[in-house]
Amino acid sequence: xxxxxxxxxxxxxxxxxxxxxxxxxxxxxxxxxxxxxxxxxxxxxxxxxxxxxxxxxxxxxxxxxxxxxxxxxxxxxxxxxxxxxxxxxxxxxxxxxxxxxxxxxxxxxxxxxxxxxxxxxxxxxxxxxxxxxxxxxxxxxxxxxxxxxxxxxxxxxxxxxxxxxxxxxxxxxxxxxxxxxxxxxxxxxxxxxxxxxxxxxxxxxxxxxxxxxxxxxxxxxxxxxxxxxxxxxxxxxxxxxxxxxxxxxxxxxxxxxxxxxxxxxxxxxxxxxxxxxxxxxxxxxxxxxxxxxxxxxxxxxxxxxxxxxxxxxxxxxxxxxxxxxxxxxxxx
Length: 332
Fold this sequence. Notes:
- Strands 5, 6, 8, 9 and 10 form a five-stranded antiparallel β-sheet that branches.
- The protein is an all-beta fold.
- The protein has one helix at residues 263-266; strands spanning 12-15, 34-37, 48-53, 62-69, 82-89, 97-101, 105-110, 115-123, 126-127, 131-135, 146-153, 157-164, 171-178, 188-193, 197-201, 211-219, 222-223, 227-231, 254-257, 272-279, 285-290, 295-298, 306-315, 318-321, 325-328.
- The protein starts with 11 loop residues before the first strand and ends with a strand.
- It is found in: Cell membrane.
């Protein structure tokens, strides 16, 4: 007999044996293989836990969406059977409630009070250490510790950097998701320790899509107010241009109005709008305004003259014009 040592937990092994005679130089054939699995042990790592707190729609109730990542310890300690979620009001642990989930997410209906929530993963041998989050009460004022956040993109990475007013903060959560994404469970997040910057592969972001990025400082068991910004890892010119509304012209002027392009068509941050206008048989002129301007008065026009006007919306990658419109100034 022989004891095999140094094996991984919860791992199936196949064993075969062959033999050789003392007086021979030839080995026998291998025996048929036997398979057996080593025992599981309780998970040794905490789950990577985060939350999205939904704004309360009615007095005294709100949804808190919890999500966590699968344990990534290697070798694995065993097959995870499920997750135990426990939660109770911060000032009344006697009201502790328990839920079981086989998924890596759960939504909890909570009232306006502060709550303590813990999640553990379990297998046949036991449970992991608790991962704990505190959910603030609805009227709690969380401090703004982060002063500024900036993001930039290199050839391979998206980089987020921030400045905190309290340098003793040692842990942060960076959260990112598509601006138009409404499912809270589609958000991505990562814990950052002892650093005020975070990098990730550029492939984790899609080009021409606006992302919300938030940085949350953690102190004790509390989560401070986030600092949020928006970013595109790559821009292209808008998919469509604005539609001009010419309104009622005067003799020598007209007010041009337009609406913002829908967010899914911008493909980048709109930097400005350019109004192009041209009298019949005349020279085209243009005026450029900032991105927060959605109307502009054209002056010094010729009376009793037909004009063509169109508007171009521009971002960092270029501009796209909307359909041209015509109007005629008044004679008197």
